[in-house]
Amino acid sequence: MALKDFPLDECLLQGNASCPGCPATIGLRLVLKALGRKTIMVVPACCTAVIESLYPHTSFDVPVMNIAFEAAAAGASGVEAALRQQGRTDITVVAWAGDGGTYDIGIQALSGALERGTNFIYICYNNQIYSNTGIQRSGATPFAAWTTTTVGGKTEFRKEMGEIILAHHIPYAAQTCISYPEDLYCKIKKAMSIKGPKYIEILAPCPPGWRFSMDKTVEMGRMAVDTGAWSLWECENDVMTFNGKSKLILEKKVERKPVEDWIKYQGRFSHLFKPERDEKRLKAIQEHVDLLWERYRKCYVKI
Amino acid sequence: MKKYPVETSLSYPKLGAMGKTGSWRVFKPILDKKKCVKCLRCWIFCPEGSIRREKDDSVNIDYDFCKGCGVCANECNVKAIIMEREEAKKK
Amino acid sequence: MTVMMDTGNRIAAKAAVMAKPEVVAAYPITPQTTLVEAIAEYVARGEYTGEYICVESEHSAMCACIGASAAGSRTFTATSSHGLLLMHEMLHWAALARLPVVMCNINRVIGPGWNIWVDENDSISQRDTGWIQFYCSSNQEIFDTVIQAFKLAEHEKVVLPVMVNLNAFILSHTSMPAEIPDQHVVDEYLGKYVPKWKLDIDNPTTFGNIIGPVHYYKVRRAMQDAQLNAKKLIPQIAKEWSKLSGYFHGDLLEYYKCDGAEHILLSMGAIGAESKIAIDELQKAGQKIGLARVRVIRPFPTEEIIKLGKQADLVVIDRNISVGLEGALFTEVKAALYGESDAKATGFIAGLGGKDVTYKDIETMCRKSMKGKAKEQEWYGVEE
Question: B63 in a domain, yes or no?
């Protein structure tokens, strides 16, 4: 899959309300290119509700239903059931939610919909914060990151949503990142070809939330993967495959870069470097990533 | 486009729903077509969809809506796009 | 036509299935369980062929109904008490979205402590959500009202969700006969569901994005207009139903022996049914008292209450309490009378927590009120 093979059609219209350099809109453009127009989206409270722009206009050229924060997967269950009754199984039902709506307030509805075998794609665009409400901590916020509710840095590590999803043993789950269009596109396409519940999580580096310059959105995602702070994988019928750079890291074909190479460019971690280096927390962050990859290797590298 | 006869918060698609967002721009991407290798990285990564992909895979920038984030310039491997301050150009 | 001798819950389920919703989404809660179990039996027997989503919470039940309704399907759910409270956010959502979801609510006490008996505080506390609310007093009325609820909810001048309330156990678990018309009668009455708006890939819209004050104001006003339209339509669609089925349940209030009455009792739900016996006894004893059983609390039957206030003094029994004020029906009745009638109104709180309210109790309350011995607002039967 080369970039020239991506469809031209744009279902997210220009002149929307997203911030400059927004990772959600990069993700939405890619996702909608893969999904095409036979798509109904269900969106809970999140930045996308703003990106849609103001009534009576919308920047989405596919049908979108906004629903309450905790409710994306449940709302999508209803849409899917109705379409099945109407014989419209040609339409893809997609829930598109942020990490707050997925890791935290929406996890119950999500788990329920996965367990019920709902035929839909749940996409979490993860910017590791409640960004729409002004940068508060979520269950996806990494350890030591500044947010407006973790002023001295978050004191807990983020939860591994991917592993929680895998415990549902759904037919397809994947992690990707807005910086890898081919990886992202192919994962959406694969999800569309599979019946049942699918979960795809997209890392979405947020310039105002992470405190980096808005031209670095894509670069910040690549750095996350290079340092192992994020990984690209897919799990189809319980068979786990790491993709791209993450596969090379897992197989130790390339060296995983120190996580500091990623966090030092983000203002949300600046208190770890100024006025002096906080060696204790920097070490804790690196050790946490090391442990994660040790676990990945134990679970997913065949000896 | 069919309007539904019910008073609820139903919105209809519009290009430029928030107006000409090009007015938000502080820095403007300037494309040097001679340097462009048609790799389409700027097109695929543009958060706004403001890089227009032409039939021959060359690109043009839609300044009506480009918010000037600079992702295109940052992602261009051949430095065919540079960012220029808007005011400087006006002078 | 057949006669079905069964519980209120099972008759509600029968009505819901005969309305042929394409999607039912529900979560079990006592005392609603036998209703959703009955639907599951219809599914197992192949008599209900729509989607039956067994969701993981009542919140998700309402969300799934909202999603299905927005996608253009007729939908139904049922809940009770804490389930209804968990749905609260989405009750507003469904109404603001103008989605004609129909729901049965089995009126049950709110905890703590846990108590599964009848009390109307669950649905009374949802009055401001924009849902139309019916209160039934017999199994025949449950059947007729559930069918009519779909007709009303989907009416082009209404397009609002409808809640049909039935009291826990007294109705939900008590067998009474109900006449069930043939399927074709219901089919003919309801017709094919045509959504007023839907998520449509051929006409993409975004539902529920950010809306400013000017437009939001209009959306709220339109909901109010729709509720007021419903007030006129409720008797009308009931008449249409009675022509087909033979049964009329449809006025905003059910009047019982009100001619010449100098006092009129206002009550709801099962107490409303029990009140008829009390009125019979009181009239036998020469008392000039009649009954107006309130069937619909949203839209509120203001004009009808004023009419009653011009005829007689009013006695109101509430099986709910707006803590810090008084019974909700009592407040609303007085508000309706304001500036329109000098009728004296007395209010009783009775039967909270499922405490039994017999016709004898109702008689006692009425006598006290008629003698002028009742305070403006009283708690009946609180054991010290």
Answer: yes
Residue A176 phi, psi (nearest 5) = -145, -165
Interface of B with A (CB under 8 A): 9-21, 24, 39-41, 43-50, 53, 57, 62, 64-65, 67-71, 73-75, 83
pLDDT in tens, A121-145: 999 999 999 999 999 999 999 999 9
Q: Tell me, what's the pLDDT at A303?
A: 65
Query: What residues in chain A have per-residue pLDDT under 50?
Result: none
Nearest CA in chain B to C221: B7
Q: Collect all residues of chain C within an 8 Å Cβ-Cβ radius of residue B13.
A: 204-206
Is the pLDDT assigned to residue C326 strictly greater than 60?
yes
Q: What is the pLDDT of residue A77?
A: 98
Asked if residue B64 is part of any domain, the answer here is: yes
Question: Which pLDDT score is estimated for C252?
Answer: 96
ipTM for this prediction: 0.97
pLDDT tens-digit series, residues A71-106: 999 999 999 999 999 999 999 999 999 999 999 999
Tokens of C225: 């207009």
Last residue of a domain, one of C225, C245, C265: C245
Domains of chain A: 7-300 (3.40.50.970)
Q: Could you tell me what percentage of chain B is helix, strand and coil, using 3-state DSSP and rounding each to the nearest 5?
A: 20, 20, 55
- Indicate whether B9 belongs to any domain: no
Closest Cβ opposite residue A49 in set C25, C69, C210:
C210
CATH of the domain at B58: 3.30.70.20
Q: What's the number of domains chain C is made of?
A: 2
Judging contacts by C-beta atoms under 8 Å, the chain B residues touching residue C154 are none
Torsion-angle region of A146 (φ positive above 0: left; ψ -120 to 50: alpha; else: beta)? beta
Owning domain of residue B47: 22-90
φ and ψ at residue A79, rounded to 5 degrees = -60, -45
Q: Could you give the number of structural domains in chain B?
A: 1
User: Is C179 in the same domain as C257?
Assistant: no
C contacts of B4 (beta carbons < 8 Å): 196-197, 205
User: CA of B58 to nearest chain A CA: how many angstroms apart?
Assistant: 11
Tokens of residue C122, six digits: 């669950």
Domain that holds residue C281: 253-379
* pLDDT tops 70 at residue B91: no
C289 and C366 assigned to the same domain: yes
Domain at C111, CATH number: 3.40.50.970
Question: Residues of A with CB below 8 A from B21's CB?
Answer: 14-16
Query: Does residue A51 sit at the B interface (CB-CB below 8 Å)?
Result: no
Please indicate, yes or no, whether residues C216 and C259 belong to a single structural domain of this protein: no
DSSP character string of C306-362: HHHHHHSEEEEEES---TTS--HHHHHHHHHHTTT----EEEEE--GGG----HHHH
Give bridge partners of residue A174 from the DSSP assignment.
Answer: A200, A234
- Facing residue for C205 by CB, picked from A58, A84, A108: A58
Cα–Cα distance between C287 and C285 in angstroms, integer? 6
pLDDT digits (tens, 9 = 90+) for B52-74: 999 999 999 999 999 999 999 99
Burial B36-68 (b: 16+ CB within 10 A, else e): bebbbbbbbbbbbbbbebeeeeebebeeebbbb
Chains touching B, CB cut-off 8 Å, 3+ pairs: A, C
Q: In chain A, pLDDT over 90 holds for what percent of residues? A: 99
Query: Looking at the complex, does the CB of residue B15 fall below 8 Å from at least one CB of chain C?
Result: no
Alpha helices in A176-278 (DSSP H): 181-193, 207-210, 217-226, 244-250, 260-263
Tell me the sheet residues that pair with C167. Answer: C107
